[in-house]
Amino acid sequence: AQTVTQSQPEMSVQEAETVTLSCTYDTSESDYYLFWYKQPPSRQMILVIRQEAYKQQNATENRFSVNFQKAAKSFSLKISDSQLGDAAMYFCAYRRSAGNTGKLIFGQGTTLQVKP
Amino acid sequence: EPEVTQTPSHQVTQMGQEVILRCVPISNHLYFYWYRQILGQKVEFLVSFYNNEISEKSEIFDDQFSVERPDGSNFTLKIRSTKLEDSAMYFCASNLRQGGNQPQHFGDGTRLSIL
Question: Spelled out in words, what is the top-level CATH class assigned to the domain A3-115?
Fold first, then answer.
């Protein structure tokens, strides 16, 4: 069975600085998708960034980028120029590729605090 | 942008009572999910639903749980006889396709408190 682990329950960053959130996963499959979701205090989970396992190039979305290390089964999220609005819980999630119902497997989450 | 909506935002129920959590997925989406998040713990998959039937369910989703899409728009999660350990946030999600890199869209969640 696939598992996702986020080993940092809490992180803090100074506004305008850069922070990296860690995520590791375990799977025997070669094709899958990885996601980072943000859950602000308003509770709705919002997609931050996604990565296809077959792509070697790391995904980037504005200030958000990932470091995808397939062999190490690592998928970290880097937030550059942190803003107060980035404060939230961040979840790493895994989804199988073919032959599945699309369910997401989540990590435990990392609460990010942004200090002004 | 279309959203997944969930009602109520907070439900308080006595142990042993039935509860129905409601969700309106995005209108053209075909795949529907329920997840739950016990306070301080990870988000856990409960069930996926497609073409008016359950396509996958987790070990958590036992006989006390059921889902249905009664009218083509609402997607409901029913817990027949609630237990204290059912207290959690319940999230509904929908997706246009089950696979690929299409993200699931989540609702705001319903906080279920069992007394």
Answer: mainly beta
